[in-house]
Fold Ribosome-binding factor A.
Amino acid sequence: MTSSGPSQRQLRVGELIRRTLSEILAQGDLHDPDLEGVSITVGEVRASPDLKKATAFVLPLGGGNREGILAALRRNKPEIRHLLAREMTLKHVPDLRFEIDETFDRMDATRRLFSDEKVRRDLEASEDPEE
């Protein structure tokens, strides 16, 4: 049986890492001036099928300095993994990867698309029962 999506175990581990990582970032336990006083949202963490890798999708509050925040998180990966290991009950903490969470950008683009006059006209026309 092949599954197209992540397993329940992957989802549980991803969510556990997301919550714990969010707490670590909110508490300001990392000793990096680039991360001090910066609120970072952890939107999702995706664990690989073997649970050896996890990708955290992050976004600084307001969306500013994305690349700087990403670089700082990547620089501090060993310390972040150590803090995660201390807080979590996993046997092994996955290797972390950090990526910018593009979800909000995609939602904004979709909203702009649906607010476009031509698109609204097309949608209204497709809902017209006379066609």
